[in-house]
Fold these 2 entries.
Entry 1:
Amino acid sequence: MTVEAVEAVTAADIAAYALRLGDDALILSQRLCEWVTRAPTIEEDLAMANIALDLLGHARTLLGYAGELDGTGRSEDDLAYTRTERQFRNALLVEIPNGDFGLSIARQLVFAHYTRLLYTALEESADAVLAGLAAKASKEVAYHCLHAGQWAVRLGAGTEESHRRMQAGLDQVWPYVAELFDSDELVRRLDGDGTGVDPARLRAEWDESVGAVLSEAGLTVPAPRWRAGGGREGLHTEAFAPLVAELQAVHRQYPGASW
Amino acid sequence: MATAAAHRTAGTPADGAPDTVDTTAYQHAFDAAVAADERVEPRDWMPDAYRATLVRQIAQHAHSEIIGMQPEANWITRAPTLRRKAILMAKVQDEAGHGLYLYSAAETLGTSRDELLDKLHSGRQKYSSIFNYPTLTWADVGAIGWLVDGAAITNQVPLCRCSYGPYARAMVRICKEESFHQRQGYELLLALSNGTAEQRAMAQDAVNRWWWPSLMMFGPPDDESQHSAQSMAWKIKRHSNDELRQRFVDICVPQAESLGLTLPDPDLRWNEERGHYDFGAIDWTEFWEVLKGNGPCNEQRITQRRRAHDEGAWVREAAAAYASKHTRTTTDTADTGTPGDTGNTAETGANRA
């Protein structure tokens, strides 16, 4: 890495990038928390809480780093609790309501494989903080892949009912997949500079690894008629505002309090 | 363990033919082992009533961990900072783990988790009365940590020396994690009590609501406790309900003082003569009502538990169907099974990772 190349991206660019990844992790963590005490088995209550906690850990590092780099000095909590819905930068996939267990597993399968590839690539980041986070997170999301993959196979190749529900979950989730891999000027610049990863270049490998799970499960890769988008610009789904309202309720009720 | 080993039998009377076996010798050996503070292990002979009491107590303990997740999980999505959210998530996760340890301990006595859950869902087995109270504010999470986990620890530390080995060992592991949660709850309340006037009021209100229900966690007074005498003779219990309750009050009063919060009991005062705090009368009518299922959240807690179980039935059925196909394909390679079901799916996940 040359000195010139490192200077090609600004701290604000890295902050914007960290915010996207952090918001993905924060919002999916919040959704998974909704499963706790409602899962099909106690083991799954535990697994959902466990994965949610890993994701929250990623979010805390990434949001804290974003606030540090963007010059505003905002903390992880400032960013999580005081932004409006329009200021969140997560992909729409992670805000999809839980639905049944099949839908949640479909969402997990998509996201876990995406982040496994992303964090593995990001381990090489020229940015030491991102590289450090990625090294830790890639190990955790590898577990999340195992969890989602094994459930997708069990449900897909379990009973007729579970096959139907798992396929329905995939069908509902698939329109949101493409957005994860959207390339734009920011990620291309970060990728060129060796700081970030343009997710577009992860798609082929993702198709392959998720495709292998679905084929093992006897499930079909959906061909959606529409594609979601807009999350990275703060254009969310209707389900998002209630999620944010719940997340921020106590914090906003007591402005300026410390906890 | 010498005595216990001596009367360990492969097929105990409980397994089959009690009429043809004279249990007197077993009973003597059991009594001697308990008297010598030895641990009773799953394969040892034990009186039927001892077994039944343990199944009941361990199951109810396990159920309490599982139902006890609900009042706290109610606040995970609203925790006011990400750090507090992470702590609460880890705690609820620990509780699920404690439930699993305890179901395993109960299973060593010849029951199954499915059977026990069925008894929970149908109301034939109970769980701790405390979890039938609602968590109304964020401060309740702290009050539960400090008072409810504090009471649980006071109850459970002596159980680490319980005569039944699997239960005692589960308690050793559980108590370590519980005391950590208890300190975190205390620290949460401390932050509120050092915070704004509103936060302080929130903390005081939570303590006011959770104090008496926490004292009820030790069970009815000694003269109304059905099982106490026998459990103490068997060394399942080591101290009476009232003794443990007194110990808890004595611990809490100075802690409340250092939190700068008051306990909602006008009769609470130090008794120099006894060397203990005196405290006011517990509302036993409320206690029995909650125990009978008429507390503020009994209905809600069981309904949520049952709904999770019922709505998850298709998932468990799928897992069972998949496991049985998987077993068949590994033993019978001629079975075509599901496409891609090569019989080594348990390993493919690891390969993918």
Entry 2:
Amino acid sequence: MKILVPVKRVVDYNIKPRVKADGSGVETTGVKMSMNPFDEIAVEEAVRLREKGAATEVVAVSIGVQQAQDTLRTALAMGVDRAILVLSGESPEPLAVAKVLRKLVEKEEPGLVILGKQAIDDDMNATGQMLAGLLGWGQGTFASKVEVADGRVLVSREIDGGAEDVSLSLPAIITADLRLNEPRYASLPNIMKAKKKPLETLQAADLGVDMAPRLTIVSVAEPASRQAGEKLGSVAELVEKLRNEAKVI
Amino acid sequence: MTALVLLDHESGQIRKAALSAVTAAARLGDVHVLVTGDASVAQAAAAVAGVSKVLHAADARYTHELAEPLAALIASLAPAYDHIVASAGAAGKNVLPRAAALLDVQPIPDVIAIESADTFVRPIYAGNALATVRSSDAKKVLTVRSAAFDAAPAEGGSAAIETVAPVDSADVSRFEAVRLSDSERPDLESARVVVSGGRGMQSEEKFHALDPLADTLGAAVGASRAAVDAGFVPNEYQVGQTGKIVAPELYMAFGISGAIQHLAGMKDSRVIVAVNKDPEAPIFQVADYGLVGDLFEVVPQLVDALKK
């Protein structure tokens, strides 16, 4: 079985994003970019499944600008076998990404597609579910545990009040939650080896997918900042403030 | 215009977050709701103020709100609606994007404000920016952040209940089991007071130091991702970008440094209190009241002072 892992290049999670002065978006020029943290978890899970013998090949794919090849090289250094870059311009929407992925799924015929549960830039949490819908496949979202056996995959999912298990017939879609695993660091020799692994580049237009956005960004603004608070000297003072000033207890 | 709200429930109770979705949908037009499960859930849905019709998906295939059959059902009902809405909880996030794909619509997740029938405000970058977006899709599919909308009253309505017939969908998924954590405390997302612990709680045993305080205040207990990853508490306690988004009247953070991803989950709380040993902890930049000190000394003192 082949596993396809979509990965996204996003502003590094340690960076505090700055809203552009003209309100058109968030500043990304000259900002450190990295692989979306949930996608690292997805890559790790796919590589582990191959190491366990449940998969034979892991293919990473990224959709966006040319620089996303750096993200794919990171995935290759983590143990992915080969990579596909689909050039589409900046920030395609989940619907368009899901349609590109559907084309790649038809071509590559993977048994599993493992995605991150959400990208930390647009915070959409939609691409995996949309791809599953377009393909008519089962979806195991917010996965904290994945087991492949007998043509099915058992997925433990994180839900609001606890956890839920679902089993899906293969092929299927999984989206990784934080607790699925601890992604490995790429070693220097593996980073060197990754440079020699195959990376194919395609154009979204050649796949016949309309990338036009459905959502127009009217404006992007800073959220209202909280007023600076005060540091207090004692518990008694805190309780007094909560009772008489804030009136919350 | 009419909106269809997916009214999710747990253990036969309609989620409070789902009632917030009803309030949001009422700004868009007439509100119909879709519920799965027993007839009792449909009756509870009919009593929600502001609901004019209940569509009850009584068939067993919808019982566990599995995405595959439920998204197909929503897509089949969609022609009668301009907006399809759910609360941005685990169920809505699982089902609605799939339904949107079936309808060839780009969903709009985590809406915090409705500007007009096609224009919505949503946080991006872990709440560090607010994007106002206008949808060009014929139908709008959105999830709404419950902290941003008051819950519709659970009583006062008298909507008609209509049973909807199941629609065919590929038999590709099966519900196996659910493990709900048993807590007698209020639900984290709807609690008026939340008491949260971070890495500074040191261990699973010591995390219970917060229990007497939570009991005294009638508060829900939350945690930072660091505390969850360290195994102090189960992950459903997690407040943050990747956990629950809360906006209580009072949020008390103990031993939490205040990473961006945690702040994304609680910075809309009305009053924030931070107790931390480190005077430089970023949490103090958003706290209304801060106390620099050892939380294991502060918490018992707080409990005593509150009981006076």
